[in-house]
């Protein structure tokens, strides 16, 4: 039986910084998952370009958001994320899912070896191809990986449809469904 | 739903809460169920450890009644506080006139050092306004008529505040219409003060009004205030809205930036310290360099063979576009490789703050580089409700130095003999508790299994609880042979080690442990019905 995690609601604009919303308490259920960060802590923004953007080019919402972030406490950046150009969130997610028993070193080495193998194969194809075909050969392993994942996505997905006061799960296109590997 | 909390006299080291039955004194001969606590299905099982045989369940009525303080009492307290503050200043050798609250706090921590972890339990000396909760004066006169016209709404302060705010909104809208008619109206945005302050939270508003509010009331009030602040306001209305806003500190101001230091060659450098899990690191960043990082005398490529750790070291420099421009020397100890990398990253970021502008410091803070990661390894503890096949949880607790486990069990195997009350009157007779004495010799027939209880061969009913105990210097010396109507058993203990003894008790039954000779703590383990799987 899964215990409910703490329900935190990001409140209205400007409301209640630092207030902990009470955890839903049901009889017979114990909360088992919690975080060392309080609910007021925001996720860090690692992207360098976000900060380098000159102030003149910012829209009103962005200025407001910037000012708001100055008053918020931020969590520490996780050990897996950097501002490096070589970092890809999809690749990181895939590596984590490949990982067994916390052996990130092995998972990451397998991932890099796979990407290297893909790149080598593509380069062989490139060198074996004629001049016209060379333009069609994709050599970037990251694009190939992303395209492969996209090809594996389903075509249809379940969508909650409200009819007569009840929600029914009905099939619709994958784009309208919100189910994703987060 | 909270059940009434029943407290026994002795301190209980381990307690499982929520509803349950309470075992009454043996002398009374009754099982008393807490009526409000007993529910079907969704309730948790209670297993309570009592060190005294007689336990009563009276509520502490005096504590539930709210204390009301008169105005004179509060005034007297304030006078005493002021005089006490002056005495304290004298004691500390300071000037009573300029003795502030911070000085008071410092003096109290000096005079009454406390090792308690809970800060609210330590001795404090504060103004009575902060200690005694605010209470409302009597709201009606001698003739019984209330003073306020909104008294009968129940929340007079809240509704009068809403009334006032709405009046101001109407006034502001009227003024806006007049300005529009004259053509002098101009759109202006009011976002300038929205960042540095926040609306009052519900608790603060309740404290201000000395009244309980619901979430909807609070939301309604905030919506009205937002509507008012969106309109063009004059000074009085701004002041009115300002009463319900609190300032929010800008976080980057809290971070102190060390100034640059210079060594003998004139090279600028800065130190920083960082922590992550159990790793501690200290980094010295030099102003000019080629991007060399030395850790504990070893190059970073040799110290961190894993790419991820080296990426973490590069992160602050890459973020600030200063990749090959600084030299770093650091020392690190403790933790594993990932925590050492994180500690060094934090130390380097802190040291870098001396070289960069304030804006860049703020960017680093928002990227999460300047926050100590609070996540630590979770201490291992006994899981109270492990998921088990068969559904019902296993209760574990400690008592009398022994470790007890109680779980639902099926009917014991065929080897054990069962006895029925009517078939064997000598064993299973329904005895009154009043007949039982401590230390009376077992009336069980020799050779008869102690573990007998009525209805044991009724395999269609699975209502048994199995209690196991281990360790603690206890042992079961045998059943007294008296069974009560709930299938209790009374056992004697002596100072031999308990080694996985097992007793089967029906739900609602009890296992009593009494000392055989002399005085000593006795133990009663009561089992109410277990939570069923359907309820979860």
TrEMBL record, chain A:
Sorted alphabetically, which InterPro entries does this protein's record hold?
Ribosomal_uS7, Ribosomal_uS7_dom, Ribosomal_uS7_dom_sf
Gene Ontology terms describing biological process: translation
User: Locate the Small ribosomal subunit protein uS7 domain: which residues?
Assistant: 78-169
Q: What are the record keywords, sorted? A: Ribonucleoprotein, Ribosomal protein
Q: Which family does it belong to?
A: Belongs to the universal ribosomal protein uS7 family.
PANTHER family from the UniProt entry: RIBOSOMAL PROTEIN S7 (PTHR11205)
Can you name this protein? Mitochondrial ribosomal protein S7
The scientific name of the source species is Bos taurus (Bovine)
TrEMBL record, chain B:
- The record's region (Disordered) falls at 430-459
- A Pfam entry, by short name: Ribosomal_S9
Q: Where in the cell is it found?
A: Mitochondrion
Q: Which cellular component terms (GO) are annotated to the entry? A: mitochondrial inner membrane; nucleolus; ribonucleoprotein complex; ribosome
Q: Which UniProt keywords apply?
A: Mitochondrion, Ribonucleoprotein, Ribosomal protein, Transit peptide
Determine the domain of life of the protein's source. Answer: Eukaryota
Where is this chain primarily localised? mitochondrion
- GO BP terms in the entry: translation
Under Gene Ontology molecular function, one entry of this record is: structural constituent of ribosome
Family (UniProt): Belongs to the universal ribosomal protein uS9 family.
Which PANTHER family does this chain map to? RIBOSOMAL PROTEIN S9, SMALL RIBOSOMAL SUBUNIT PROTEIN US9M
Name assigned to this protein: Small ribosomal subunit protein uS9m
């Amino acid at each position: 039986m899964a215990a409910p995690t703490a329900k935190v609601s990001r409140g209205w604009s400007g409301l209640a910084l630092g207030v902990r919303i009470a955890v839903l308490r049901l009889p017979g259920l114990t909360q088992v998952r919690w975080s060392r960060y309080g609910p007021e802590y925001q996720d860090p923004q690692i992207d360098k370009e976000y900060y380098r953007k000159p102030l003149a080019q910012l829209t009103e919402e962005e200025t407001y958001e910037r000012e708001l972030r100055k008053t918020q406490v931020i969590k520490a950046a996780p050990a897996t994320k950097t501002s490096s150009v070589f970092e890809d969130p999809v690749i990181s997610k895939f590596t984590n899912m490949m990982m067994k028993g916390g052996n990130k070193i092995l998972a990451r080495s397998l991932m890099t070896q796979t990407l290297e193998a893909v790149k080598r194969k593509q380069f062989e194809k490139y060198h074996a191809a004629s001049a016209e075909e060379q333009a069609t050969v994709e050599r970037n392993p990251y694009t190939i990986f992303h395209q492969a994942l996209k090809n594996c996505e389903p075509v249809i997905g379940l969508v909650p449809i409200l009819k007569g006061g009840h929600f029914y799960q009905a099939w619709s296109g994958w784009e309208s469904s919100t189910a994703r590997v987060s | 739903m909270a059940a009434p909390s029943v407290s026994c006299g002795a301190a209980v080291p381990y307690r499982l809460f929520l509803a349950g039955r309470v075992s009454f004194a043996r002398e009374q001969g009754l099982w008393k169920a807490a009526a409000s606590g007993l529910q079907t299905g969704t309730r948790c099982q209670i297993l309570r450890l009592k060190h005294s045989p007689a336990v009563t369940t009276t509520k502490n009525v005096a504590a539930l009644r709210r204390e009301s303080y008169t105005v004179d009492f509060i005034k007297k307290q304030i006078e005493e506080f002021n005089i006490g503050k002056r005495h304290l200043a004298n004691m500390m050798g300071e000037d009573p006139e300029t003795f502030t609250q911070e000085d008071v706090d410092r003096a109290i921590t000096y005079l009454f050092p406390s090792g308690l972890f809970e800060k609210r339990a330590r001795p404090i000396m504060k103004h009575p306004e902060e200690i005694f909760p605010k209470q409302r004066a009597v709201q009606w006169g001698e003739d019984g008529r209330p003073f306020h016209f909104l008294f009968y709404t129940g929340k007079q302060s809240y509704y009068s505040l809403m009334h006032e705010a709405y009046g101001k909104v109407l006034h502001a809208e009227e003024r806006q219409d007049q300005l529009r008619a004259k053509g002098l109206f101009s759109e202006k945005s009011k976002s300038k003060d929205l960042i540095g302050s926040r609306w009052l939270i519900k608790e603060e508003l309740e404290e201000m009004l000395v009244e309980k509010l619901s979430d909807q009331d609070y939301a309604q009030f905030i919506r009205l205030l937002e509507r008012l602040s969106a309109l063009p306001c004059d000074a009085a209305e701004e002041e009115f809205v300002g009463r319900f806003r609190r300032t929010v500190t800008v976080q980057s101001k809290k971070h102190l930036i060390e100034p640059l230091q210079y060594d003998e060659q004139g090279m600028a450098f800065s130190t920083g310290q960082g922590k992550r899990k159990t790793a501690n690191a200290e980094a010295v960043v030099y102003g000019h360099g080629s991007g060399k990082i030395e850790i504990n005398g070893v190059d970073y490529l040799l110290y961190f063979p894993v790419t991820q750790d080296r990426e973490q070291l590069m992160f602050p420099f890459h973020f600030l576009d200063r990749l090959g421009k600084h030299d770093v020397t650091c020392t690190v100890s403790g933790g594993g490789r990932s925590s050492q990398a994180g500690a060094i990253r934090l130390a380097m970021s802190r040291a870098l703050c001396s070289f960069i502008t304030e804006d860049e410091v703020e960017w680093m803070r928002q990227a999460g580089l300047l926050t100590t990661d609070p996540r630590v390894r979770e201490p291992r503890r006994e899981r109270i409700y492990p998921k088990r096949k068969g559904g019902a949880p296993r209760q574990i607790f400690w008592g009398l130095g022994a470790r007890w486990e109680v779980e639902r069990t099926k009917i014991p195997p065929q080897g054990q003999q069962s006895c029925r009350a009517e078939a064997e009157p000598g064993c299973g007779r329904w005895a009154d508790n009043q007949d039982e004495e401590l230390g009376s010799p077992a009336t069980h027939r020799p050779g008869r299994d102690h573990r007998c209880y009525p209805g044991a061969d009724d395999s269609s009913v699975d209502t048994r609880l199995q209690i196991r105990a281990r360790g603690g210097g206890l042992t079961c010396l045998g059943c007294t042979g008296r069974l009560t109507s709930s299938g209790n058993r009374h056992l004697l203990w002596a100072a031999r080690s308990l080694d996985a003894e097992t007793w089967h008790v029906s739900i609602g039954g009890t296992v009593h442990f009494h000392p055989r000779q002399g005085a000593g703590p006795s133990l009663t383990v009561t089992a109410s019905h277990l939570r069923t799987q359907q309820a979860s």
